Amino acid sequence: MKLGRLNHIGIATPSIADSIVHYREVMGATDITEPFDLPEQGVKVCFVNTPTHSGMDGTQIELIEPLGEGSAIRGFLDKNPLGGQHHVCFEVPDIVAARAWFEGQGKRILGPTRIGAHGTPIFFVHPKDMQGMLTEIMETPRDGAHASH
Amino acid sequence: MKLGRLNHIGVATRKPLPFRGGVGVGAIYRAQRLRLAPTPGPSPEGEGGL
């Protein structure tokens, strides 16, 4: 497998609304998407877009807030009440080949491949097999879209 | 202030970083050590350095 683009960093937060204010007013972010629900993953999500030298297509900050009591990030926020870095996400050209690659190396994959916040297939690899970092692998959007929302 | 490019993510690791000639904390540490090292001079016998 060849390492792809660092698509986003997932930041857990107890309040997306408060985090949006922080990124806009303290960090000077100018391009933040509207929050939307991902009920199948138990999270509310929005993206802070960061610039590159050619536009606003840099690595995104994905703000994730628990949605419902069974949210996958509820435990993380119990341990880290202020929130914080939750995962990193790299792009790959072929999600099926990437999953086979990680499985072939004995890496534990968390759950099935599913559709992520960008509308493309994703899966997560266990942090204990990834140098302590929960790692999301996502298929690069075919149309080059940066975010689906 | 205007948000700039996300330059990098720092990932902590338990083992020392390998020296790669200008990358990472290990390189900074090595560079400081190199600057502090004494300049090699002639030996008491008068020829060559350390």
Task: Offer a quick outline of the entry.
Chain A has helices at 16-25, 74-79, 95-104, and strands at 6-12, 36-38, 43-48, 60-66, 84-92, 109-115, 121-125, 135-139. Chain A has 149 residues and is of the alpha+beta class.
Number of helices of chain A: 3
Question: Alpha-carbon distance between the termini of chain A?
Answer: 29 Å
**Major beta-sheet overview of chain A:** 8 strands, mixed
Give the integer mean of the pLDDT values of chain B: 62
Could you walk me through the main structural features you see in this protein, from its secondary elements to its overall organization?
The complex is a heterodimer of chains A (149) and B (50). By secondary structure, chain A is of the alpha+beta class. In chain A, 17% of the residues lie in helices and 33% in strands. Chain A contains three helices and eight strands; from the N terminus they run E-H-E-E-E-H-E-H-E-E-E. An eight-stranded mixed beta sheet of chain A has the order 2-3-4-1-5-8-7-6. In chain A, strand 2 and strand 3 (43-48) form a beta hairpin. The N and C termini of chain B lie far apart (52 Å). With 50 residues, chain B is mostly helical. Chain B is built from one helix and no strands. Chain B is 26% helix and 0% strand. At the A-B interface, loops of A face loops of B.
